[in-house]
Write a structure and sequence with these properties.
Elements (H helix, E strand, L loop, with lengths): L4 E15 L6 E17 L3 H20 L1 H4 L5 E2 L15 E2 H23 L8 E10 L2 E7 L3 E6 L20 E2 L1 E3 L8 E4 L10 H10 L8 E2 L2 E2 L11 E5 L7 E4 L2 H5 L1 E2 L1 E2 L6 E2 L9 E2 L20 E6 L10 E5 L1 H4 L4 H13 L8 H14 L1 E3 L2 E3 L8 H4 L6 E4 L11
Parallel strand pairs: 8-19, 11-15
Antiparallel strand pairs: 1-2, 2-5, 3-4, 5-6, 5-18, 6-19, 7-10, 7-20, 9-10, 12-13, 13-14, 16-17, 20-23, 21-22
Length: 411
């Protein structure tokens, strides 16, 4: 069996030539970068394998291109030097947005590589992707899909999040937000990603359909109706919403509305785009077609949302961990339940145990999948496990300490 879910890790010391801060002479510097990636494949394992082997290369290349700017002092830098008495031709740019742009560009380049090389290599299907990059004292989580990353941490010290580096649109950098401890937990949860499904990405998909109605080929309608339309609804008022709306409004149903199938159906994990796929972001799927030979790829994007977590804002302990996992875990456990598993497992492990975080990852797998006993597959509470959950052993889960890179840096 070809495993559709894969994970990747890399550590790099980026070589950057830049002027020395004291002497002004050109000098070789090193920027330390840690990378973790999780890839959830569908319709084959080709895209997830290919992405696991190559995404970090695109990230490293993009980071090298902005290396000299990152070595400058301050949180913001001028990307163009002054050329006259009026000063620099453009305002300063936050370093966070430079790194954000590098990560976004790397994801787009990764998808473009799959498109180019799918004829040469076997790269069937597609995959969602989530990547964690530790660099210069911050953690950058880039998510394109329905995998998820959370930080389980002790609720002590000052707030860790930094004000958003940009507006909170789906493709802009946003700050991590902590959720207070609940249900007797001593660890708190910090969400450092947001799930993207056809349901949560609705506005973007509807807006694209509004700009390019030909993509729907007259078979689907972009409006989301509060319920399924029937013939008897003709000329009646039914609630719906369009791309620019978060709420609902009444609309009189027309013949045209009845002739169109809704482009978005279902809720939660059952949400579907054009009746075909349950995700809205990721890599691959360049040859995927839906009903009426509609090409699905124009509606899918590899552009990630980038969330920034500032490691320097608080002291982290060995009991603070970053959990990255595909949707197989999150379909079974919510953030608080996963944190409870982490907390219980850490309490049983010595802080200096070499396999401490591997054990946490294994326990999360068991919590979602269950264990094989004489009674068959059972959870820790002796609940019988269905056939679909047995396959959760193939889901990728990564656990690491967020402060493991010691905040990163350059030398």
């Amino acid at each position: 069996m070809c495993m559709q879910d894969h994970a990747a890790f890399d550590y790099e010391r980026l070589e950057v030539f830049a002027p020395d801060a004291r002497t002004g002479e050109e000098k070789l510097h090193h920027i330390e970068l840690w990378y973790f990636g999780v890839f959830d494949g569908h319709a084959g394992c080709g895209a997830s394998i290919f992405s696991a082997k190559n995404l970090h290369k695109h990230i490293i290349s993009a980071m090298k291109s902005i290396g000299p700017l990152l070595l400058k002092e301050g949180d913001s830098v001028y990307v163009e030097e002054a050329t006259g008495p009026l000063g620099p031709p453009s305002p300063p740019v936050l370093k966070d947005t430079l790194i954000q742009g590098a990560l976004e560009h790397a994801f787009i380049d990764m998808d473009a590589q799959i498109k180019r090389e799918r004829a040469t290599y076997s790269i069937p299907g597609g995959c969602t992707a989530i990547a964690a990059v530790f660099v210069l004292g911050k953690l950058y989580i880039s998510n394109a899909g329905d995998s998820r990353a959370i930080i389980c941490r002790e609720p002590t010290g000052p707030a860790s999040s930094k004000p958003p580096a940009a507006s909170s649109s789906s493709n802009s950098a946003v700050a991590a937000v902590a959720t207070p401890s609940a249900g007797g937990l001593s660890l708190e949860v910090v969400e450092v990603s947001h799930d993207f499904t056809p349901e949560t990405d609705r506005s973007r998909l509807q807006y694209l359909a509004m700009l390019q109605p030909k993509l729907l080929r007259g078979l689907f309608g972009r409006l989301q109706w509060q319920r399924r339309l029937r013939k008897r609804d003709l000329d009646k008022r039914v609630m719906c919403r369009d791309a620019h709306m978060q709420g609902w409004v009444y609309r009189t149903v027309t013949d045209e509305d009845l002739n169109y199938a809704p482009m978005l159906t279902g809720e939660g994990k059952r949400a579907r785009l054009l009746g075909t796929i349950g995700t809205s972001r990721g890599f691959g799927d360049h040859d995927l077609v839906g009903p009426g030979d509609i090409h699905i790829k124009p509606f899918l994007t590899a552009a990630p949302e980038v969330v920034i977590y500032d490691l320097s804002r608080r002291h982290h302990t060995p009991d603070d961990v970053l959990v990255i996992a595909t949707d197989g875990l999150w379909e079974r456990l919510n953030n608080e339940e996963a944190t409870a598993v982490v907390e219980q497992c850490l309490a049983k492990q010595a802080r200096n145990a070499s396999n401490r975080y591997n054990t946490v990852a294994q326990q999360l797998v068991l919590a979602a999948r269950g264990n094989l006993t004489s009674k068959g597959w059972r959870t820790a509470t002796d609940e019988q496990v269905g056939e679909d959950r047995k396959l959760r052993q193939l889901d990728a889960i990564g656990v690491c300490q967020p402060a493991v890179p010691k905040h990163g840096g350059h030398k």
